[in-house]
Amino acid sequence: MPGALDGVTVVDFSQLVQGPLATQFLGDMGADVIKIEAPGGEWMRQSWSMANAYEDGVNLTFLTANRNKRSVELDIKDDEQLEVLYDVIADADVFVENLRPGVVDRLGLGYEDLSEINPEVIYCSASGYGEEGPYADRPGQDLIIQGVSGLANLNGRADDPPTPVGLPLNDFYSAAMLAFAAVSALYHREQSGEGQHIKADLLSASVHLQSMEIDTYLNTGEPPERSETGISHPYYQAPFGVYETADGHMTLSLTMPSIVGETLGIDELEEYDTWEAAYEHRDEIKPLIEEVLREKPTDHWIDKLVEHDIWGGPVQTMEEVVDDPQVEVNDMIQTVEHEELGEIELTGVPFRMTETPPDIHEAPPALGNATEDVLREYGYSEEFIEQMQARNRDR
Fold it and tell me: Angle, to 10 degrees, between the axis of helix 282-293 and the axis of helix 257-264?
């Protein structure tokens, strides 16, 4: 079936996570994503992998953000190859870059440069802090942003140091917002014929992720305070949190403590039958529940929660998650064929569409795997392609 973005061409001039994830979202929806890489490959492909994970020289972290793309190896410091990139951009719908502000302008690839070549282009800039302001020239990376945005101060117990989330949350959220903005701009262009410049940054994404918490503070003046016993949100009432069981851990969410007490046989919770009491006495309530839950295994308690429609669930390991039957039904683990590694497994697309379903139709590309094909599509001769590739191999 066709993808929703069939016929849309995206030029991906980004690296690391934020930009490549945004273009991958567009590729999942059917766009033709042409990933431009310098000789040797982008920084993530060459230089860093989570857990130093490589297989046969392939960076496994690179695979996460680069499926459904074609790789073209160009040295844009070479005037002829910069002209190749201009030719590709002239025919593109979307251009995505995530270099530090000002760098693309020095390369001749700023918005003003490219909108002269292609007035209808949707030009997307992704950065750490935004293109203006006191932090604009600082390096932006997810952990740094978790600190600057205050996100790390929402996690953990009262006496713990700031506790960052154990995944690049801001990268993923900012990438999703950038892809959403690009699709919105494409719709606007259909109505108006106008291209535009989209700017997204990690700090704004992180602040937006905390909208509920920041809005609460702005309108109450009450700063968030982490609980002493591990209530898993500084503004939430008991029993919200993670609890130890006889054989693992489980969660309890937003259920009145008196109802939890009735279900679990904890008479002391009977008096906590309002949300005000559940918040004011949260550090007294949680230990009462913990003591009981430690007595029996997780499955026993989950069965009881399901029976009484109480919000909660098991805390699973990574091994359990990838084998979870609901994850399987949702098709969130998919097998694709990689041209160097053979069969690999990747996480799937987290939504479904009846008429234009997203699809993993291409594994992440080997470096330059589509250089010859793309240059032929744009009318370059075999002699030019051979000479260009020879120059790049020598660099």
Answer: 20
